[in-house]
Specification:
Layout lengths: L2 H4 L6 E5 L4 H12 L3 E6 L2 H13 L4 E5 L5 H14 L5 E4 L15 H26 L5 E6 L24 H21 L4 E8 L9 H9 L13 H8 L10 E4 L7
Parallel strand pairs: 1-2, 1-4, 2-3, 4-5, 5-6, 6-7
Length: 263
Amino acid sequence: MNPAQLFDLTGRTALVTGGGTHLGRAMAEALAAQGARVVLAGRRTDVVEATAEAMRADGLWSRAVTLDVTDRDQVETVFAAVAEEVGPLDILVCNAGASFEHTFPPDADVDEFRATLEVNAVGTYLCAQAGARQMVPRGRGSIVTVSSIHGSLSADPRLYDGIDMKIRSGPGYQASKSAVLALTRNLAAELGRHGIRVNCISPGQIPRASNDPEFIERCRQLNALGIVGTPEDLKGAVVLLASDAGRFMTGANILVDAGWSIW
């Protein structure tokens, strides 16, 4: 194959959890631009529907479904419906994640910790299981998990000093994103015999436009390239891992962080 063919996803079915906004939306757009039929899954129906409509307006194949990744029965029902209505999954991006942490050590709330683990670690596990069951009979498939640089590195609390933020990286977020990395390696080992590749993307600091300007500037200053990350910076990595260009990759963790982790 020539390079263009290696990245071609025409005819493949993809599902992106947390696909309505920010990182998930960008990755969904990237897969659809390469020819995949992309299903956007998210808890907020209005958000995923609006994103799917915007993608269709741009000539991209997209459909929206409502999904809470922590609800096992709902995961099973939605994944089965996608297989029946669109086609068995070839690509699954386990992007849905959250942090419910508003308190931090030594006074951190254990319920906030549990809730964050439930979405990031358990939700990824439930979706990966459901996706793999569709891929095993066909002997192929790509599962992409999404961790964070904070799955490998601790967040420096000084990054947030003096900035009023609704949430920041805390113990639950970092523990759950570390769990995603370990889960990725285990799934790669267990599913490789079935022809299924499982890889991870660990984004660096990719702030939202609504974040405090001082926080955005600190994110820029603290990476090696001195640039602000955007959701579009994940598009190349997800297409690589989803496509035949990544056929010899499994159990890998791709850091997309402008060198944040090299210091």
